[in-house]
Amino acid sequence: MKHLILFFLFSFSISFATDLNTATDWFRKGNTAYEKGNFEEASSNYQKAEDLGVANSRLYYNHANSLFRQRQLGLSILYYERARKLAPLDEDILSNLHFAQAQLADKIPEPESNLLTKLVWNVHASYSIRSGIWAAFGLFALIFAAVAAALFLTSFLRWLSILIAVVSSLALISFSPSLGYRIHQQESVQIGIVLQPAIEMLSGPGENYQVLAKVHEGTRFEIVEQRGDWLSVKLANGKGGFVRANQLGKV
Fold first, then answer.
1. What's the Cα-to-Cα distance from 57 to each of 22, 28, 42, 82, 88, rounded to whole Å?
2. Distance (Å, rounded) from C-alpha 43 to C-alpha 49?
3. Residue 23 CA to chain centroid, in angstroms?
4. Of 46, 48, 106, 52, which is closest to residue 76 (Cα–Cα)?
5. Predicted TM-score (pTM) of this structure
6. I want to staple 69 with a disulfide (CB 3.0 to 4.6 A). Which of 39, 54, 113, 250 is the partner?
7. What angle do CA 199, 201, 204 make, to 5 degrees?
8. Are 94 and 84 in contact (CB under 8 A)?
9. With contact defined as beta carbons under 8 Å apart, do 248 and 221 qualify?
10. End-to-end CA separation in angstroms for the chain
11. pLDDT of the residue at 7
12. Residue 103 β-bridge partners
């Protein structure tokens, strides 16, 4: 039994390595095609890499660029958003995403917020989840080390270790809600991008409901829930309604 398990693990590792190497080859072919101006071929090659199960911010970013050059605004924004989800601080991704969003037909303003709220939100959004987890782990390790040192040191060094442990604990307690909320957003908040030239947002999950608004390609929704073939969605300004699930691409 043990040998059988090892065989399957070994086979899986070989398969994973093979897929990763193949995906890397498709990624490089996509880059070559893009440099030659063959944007449709580049998109096809990037898609083949993604079909192998690779989720990479640079792959999504390059795919988005090739789609934007083909004037596929909705799809390009979808892939820029996927890239941003993996690398929220990447300046190239943010710059190109904002440039693409500037081409949108719908300009949907977000609710006004005061200066303090903006400051807190900017601090909250200034780190990636991966770096946040490492920071939390580092603080926890520092607390453990400081407490352990306080047990063996004497006099001034003991009090210094206690001070470090207290400050690190306060920092971890203050930082944890922000990190927890970011993880919650990553896991539970789903974003959808309109992929069709124009769609109707209805007051209920069916064609017979009232049309609340018409929204255009590239518009960003927060997906609240799914009811059969329909999605309950919300715009950045807080207004919501229902759209067909096949009209959006999920980030």
1. 17, 15, 16, 7, 9
2. 10
3. 21
4. 46
5. 0.74
6. 39
7. 135
8. yes
9. yes
10. 41
11. 39
12. none
The two three-digit tokens of residue 106, written as one number: 């719908």
Residue 63: what residue type? Answer: H
State how far the Cα of 194 lies from the Cα of 75, in Å rounded to an integer: 8
Query: Which is more confidently placed, 155 or 31?
Result: 31
Residue 245 contacts residue 230 (beta carbons within 8 Å): yes
Using the predicted structure, report yes or no on whether residue 11 has a pLDDT greater than 50.
no
| Res 14: pLDDT | 46
Rounded CA separation 31/21 (Å): 15
Q: DSSP letters along the chain, please?
A: -HHHHHHHHHHHHHHHHHHHHHHHHHHHHHHHHHHTT-HHHHHHHHHHHHHTT---HHHHHHHHHHHHHTT-HHHHHHHHHHHHHH-TT-HHHHHHHHHHHTT-S---PPPP--HHHHHHHHHHTSS-HHHHHHHHHHHHHHHHHHHHHHHH--HHHHHHHHHHHHHHHHHHHHHHHHHHHHHHHHHH-EEEEE-SSEEEEESSSSTTSPEEEEEETT-EEEEEEEETTEEEEE-TTS-EEEEEGGGEEE-
